[in-house]
Structures are given as C-alpha cells and as structure tokens.
Design a protein that fits this description.
434 Repressor (Amino-terminal Domain), Rossmann fold, 3 domains, 6-stranded parallel sheet, 6-stranded mixed sheet, 12 helices
C-alpha cells in the first residue's frame, strides 16, 4: 500500500474531483449525494488516507509522546461522580512517569464521519494513540483506528462484540452477584438506580436484570429499574430517590452508586426508613475515600484507577510494539459485605 496517500489518490480512485474530496473531508457535503459520500468514505478507508492538521510529522516514525483521551460530550456533568477524577489522576501519574503528555477530546457524536477524520488527523501530527471512554452498543468508530494502524484502547465492553481492543470491569458479573446476594437474603422487591440511558455499563446491568427476572419469577422476585432524567439537578435526584421509597409496597433493597448516595440517604432519613432494618442498599459504584477510612457499606468497589492504568500501559505497549498481538482484558469486581444490608424485617417475621 502506498505510504503517503494524497487527496489526488483518493480523487483518482473514487473518480470524483479533488475539490469534491476536499469538501467531504471538511464536512461540506450537505448537497452531496449519499452514493458519492459512501464512495469517498470507502476509498479513504481502503487507501488508509489520513488528513493532516499540519505537514506530516511522522515520516521517520518519530513519537509525539502524547496520548489523547476521548471522553463524553457533556463536560458539565463530568465530575458528578469520582470516576473521571480517578481516571485522570491515574493516567496523569503514569504519563508524568513515562514523560508523556495527555490531551482530552470531547466527542460531539453529531457528525461521526467528520469526527473520525479529525481524530485520525490528530494521529498523523499530534498524538501517538487514543484511549476511548463512554462507549455505547452502537459505537464502532474506533475500528477506523485499527484500519489505519493507529494504536487505541477502549475502556468498556460492548455486549456480544469482541473484535476490538478493550479493557473493562466485569460489570455484568458484579450486577449478578449483587442481585443474587440480595435475593438470598430474602429481598423480593429490589430497585436498581440508573444514572443514564445508554452506555456499555448500563447495557450489562440491564442484561442481568432481564436474566434474573426470568430465572427468579417463580419465586415472586421483582426487580425494577429507576432512571434519572438527563442532566438531573440535585433536587430531581432527591425526588426520584424519595418516590422510589414511598408507598406501602416500596422495595426493601436498592442498588445505588456513589453519585447519588447522599440524596438516597437523605430521602431514606426523611421517610424514617432505617438501614438495614427497613431497607438495604448496595453501593455498586463505590469509590473509597482514603481520608475518611473505609466506609462500612455493602459495596462493589470501582476499579476506575486500575482500569485507567492498565489501559494506558497497554496503549504504550501498542505504540512501541505495533506488531505484538493485543490482548483484551476483563477485570473482576468484588462484592464486599458491609453493614448496609440484612434480612428484611418482613422475612424475619416469616422465620419466627
């Protein structure tokens, strides 16, 4: 394959003018037919063409010693949980040790074709590789990196899809262990709070919920999902938590995350619900707070730091050993029993 592919090469193979190719690469294709766009897109991919932000920087394989983190679009809620602070701290520490720089790119999603071209151009002149966060089950844009020979690692496992480079926590198994533990205690009405409508983590948990519902339906087990509106305010989060705990048939067990824990506990207190006598809860996205010591919660502790460190190390390995086979990895998550779960009072009465 030709190493320095130009717009002229793309134009010739696609049988369109260079100006048409240029317009496509710059996202100016509102009046372009779908057939023409598809032809140019396929030709760009087949030839491995990468547009430049500046003159090509890597004619002699020189490294920029810069890695790009591809993160969600909504920066306003990026620090609602401790996930990204943990991720950034872990990668920054390793990057400094290895004399690497970190760039952060916020995805737009509205124009994926233009976005992937921009990211590939960064790889030609600015960065050595990418760590991709915030996957959903339809995401495949990172395969363009693989086709173009650009090192990348995805953080997250897409259900039923293995043909890519990933490092992920085993959220599916963690959700199953959590729900089965609560069921074994005697809880028959369980609520699982969801912070968003999409993403590979939520997909894994929803898959488990569907399986558990089917497996335990004869035992009268009910599992409900409680979702928060996008960009929910603190008051809305509190109201949703409180509503889920009201009424005579409220669930006796809840699966929450650290992001909503304070609102959940406030709502429980306002409703005079005792933990774990009246309700139990498991913090399935627990983040340890070293300054305050270990909290005595039943929890599944996040491996955000470990995942980020592993992703960074694997990416550097791909950058400097591009011919070595990439080995994707699933990191297990452990359910730790604390003081926030117990046998529900109704079940105790049945035992007596």
């Amino acid at each position: 394959m030709k190493t320095n592919v130009t717009i002229a090469d793309v134009s010739k193979k696609a049988r369109v003018s260079k100006s048409t190719v240029s317009n496509y690469l710059n996202g100016k294709y509102e009046r372009m037919s779908e057939e023409t766009k598809n032809i140019i897109r396929d030709t760009v991919r087949d030839l491995g063409y990468t547009p430049n932000l500046s003159a090509r920087r890597l004619p002699n394989k020189e490294k920029s010693r810069t890695v790009c983190l591809v993160i969600p679009e909504d920066l306003t809620r990026l620090f609602d949980s401790k996930y990204y602070p943990k991720v950034f701290h872990a990668i920054e520490r390793l990057a400094e040790k290895d004399n690497y720089n970190i760039l952060i790119y916020s995805r737009k999603r509205s124009n994926p074709e233009k976005e992937i071209l921009f990211l590939k151009s960064m790889a030609s002149s600015v960065v050595d590789g990418f760590i991709v966060f915030d996957l959903d089950d339809q995401d495949r844009f990172f395969k363009e990196f693989e086709t173009a020979g650009i090192p990348y690692v995805c953080v997250g496992k897409i259900i039923g899809y293995d043909d890519y480079h990933y490092i992920a926590s085993d959220h599916e198994k963690a959700a199953r262990n959590t729900l089965e533990y609560l069921i074994q205690l005697g809880h028959k009405r369980i609520a699982l709070f969801e912070m968003c409508d999409s993403g590979v983590v939520q997909d894994a948990r929803r898959k488990v919920i569907a399986e558990i519902r089917q497996e335990y339906q004869e035992r009268g087990v009910e599992i409900q999902r409680v979702s928060f509106p996008p960009k929910a305010s603190d008051q809305v989060i509190y109201d949703v938590c409180k509503k889920a705990m009201e009424g005579p048939d409220y669930p006796t067990a809840y699966v929450i995350s650290s992001a909503i824990q304070q609102y959940f506990l406030m709502a429980a207190n306002d409703l005079n619900l005792r933990i774990p006598k009246d309700i139990s809860y498991v913090n399935i996205d627990y983040y340890s707070r070293n300054d305050l010591g270990k909290e005595e919660q039943t929890r599944v502790e996040s491996k955000a730091s470990l995942i980020a460190e592993t992703a960074f190390k694997k990416l550097l390995k791909s950058i400097y050993n591009p011919l070595e086979e990439f080995k994707s990895e699933m990191i297990p998550l452990e359910l730790t029993i604390g003081l926030t779960t117990g046998i529900p009072e109704r079940k105790k009465e049945e035992i007596k």
